[in-house]
Design brief:
Distance between the termini: 64 Å
Largest sheet: 2 strands, antiparallel
Radius of gyration: 25 Å
Order of helices and strands: HHHHHHEEHHH
Strand order of the largest sheet: 1-2
Strand content: under 5%
Structural class: mainly alpha
Number of helices: 9
Amino acid sequence: LRSTKSQKTDPTDARSVAIAAMRHGGLKTVVVDDHTTVLALLAKRHRDLARFKNKAACRLHALLLELTAGGLGSEMTVNKAHALLERVEATDGVARQRVMIATELVDDIGRYNTQMRASKKRIKAAVAASGSSLCDIRGIGPIGAATILGAVGDVSRFPTKGHFASYNATAPIDASSGNHNRHRLNPRGNRKLNHVLHIAAVCQLRYPSEGRVYFDKKLAEGKTSKEAIRALKRRISDVVYRRLQADARHLKS
C-alpha cells in the first residue's frame, strides 16, 4: 500500500487549521497587544521572581542545616540569616565554602526582595491604569488582578459565567454513576487563574464575609470542607466574571 505520509504538508496543515478556526466561534480573536499584555508580562515576571527567591531560600536552608544543628529554626529573614552565619565557626575548607555560598544565597534573597517590592509597585500602577475593579473583591489584590486580566484579555470571548468557570477550572467535572450524583475536582483549565481564585477563597474564610457565610452554609448542607471551598471558588469565579463584564462596559461608555 502507498504510504500517506507524503500527503502531509505544511500548506495542508495550515488550511486545516484555518477551516477549524473559521468554524469555531469560541476561539480567542488575535488582536494587537494591549494593556492586558502588559499586565500578563508583569504578573509572570513577579511569579518568576518569587520562584527564584523560593529556590534560593530552599538551598540556603539546606546549607544552614549542614553548618549548625537545626539550621535557622525560625522564619527566614535576611538579617537572621546573616546573624547566624556570623556565629558559625568555619574550621575547615568545606565549612568555609558552605559559609561563602550561604552568604551569596542570602544576598540573592535580599536582591529578590528588592526586585519583588519594585514589581509590586509596577503591578499596582498598571492595574490602576486598567480601570479594573477586581481589587474590590476580598482576597484579590493587584497581583491577582493582573494575573486575571492578563489571562482573560477580552472577557467577551466567554459567552456565559459557565464558560468562564470552565476556563479557570472552578466548574467541577461530573462523576455521577447510576443514581449516585457526584462531582470531582477539575484538574484542567488555567491553573494560574484557579490559584488566584483559591487564594481569594482562603482569604474570605479567614474573616467574617459573604464567602464565609456561604462556606458555612455548604458545610451545613453536608458538604465536606474540600467540596465547600470548591463551591466557594465557583461563586467567586462568577463574581469575577460579572466584574470583568461591568468594567468592559464602563470602558466602552
